[in-house]
Amino acid sequence: MIVGDTGSGKSFTALKIGELLDPDFNAKNVAFSPLELINLIKISKPGDVVVMDEAGIQFGARNFMSRSNKILSGIFQAFRFKQIILIWTLPDLSMIDITARRLLHTYIETLGVDYKHEQTVVKWFDVKIDRWTGEYKHVYPRIMTSEGPVVVRVVRFGKPSDDLIGAYEEKKAKTFNEMLDNYEKVLLGEEASEPLKKRKNKGKKLEEEP
Q1: What b/e string do you get for 92-117 counting C-beta neighbours within 10 Å, with b at 16 or more?
Q2: Could you tell me the pLDDT band of residue 109, with boundaries at 50, 70 and 90?
Q3: 169 is a domain residue
Q4: Is 205 within the bounds of a domain?
Q5: Which of 88, 119, 125, 204 could lock onto 138 through a cystine, CB 3.0 to 4.6 A?
Q6: Range(s) of the domain holding residue 180
Q7: Using 50, 70 and 90 to split pLDDT, how confident is the model at 59?
Q8: Is residue 91 a part of any domain in this protein?
Q9: Is residue 148 part of a domain?
Q10: Which tens digits make up the pLDDT trace of 151-165?
């Protein structure tokens, strides 16, 4: 799970990790809706990386919490069963409930972009669950060096390849334009239905008059 403010590098971090872990990773591995994510689950192989990008935008925070959390745990279980790596980006971890959080392995918080070096700076946490108390917590990872264990508090990721960025931006623009078109159709439909409702109500009143 990758969380952070708008423009802090969440999506590019997810794409870069995808490239590092999966040699076949490309923009087709990125989903922008739960339905697209489910379709990717069906066709993905063990070891594949799938990114669910900016999930909350598709629903809005309130709708996301009430609707998607009902299937989120099932989706996480499906990824475990198929041995697929899921990278999920969200503005805020509170958008998913505690049950789904317990299924996470890693929590990444983007701190911002170092434009000079073209890197995203993040804090990386391993998710730990106390199986006795059920306590959920995230801790900094440790790596072994010649001088002993070292706590890793900050990680830097370079930007994804230019080809991946171009394909991703094109797909994202197409997806969000389609989303806006759908919103426009809904709004136009509502506006068009208002005069019809008024005419129907007026007709009912005329019928009721003696």
Answers
A1: eeebbeeebbebbeebbbbbebeeee
A2: very high
A3: yes
A4: no
A5: 125
A6: 2-188
A7: very low
A8: yes
A9: yes
A10: 999 999 999 999 999
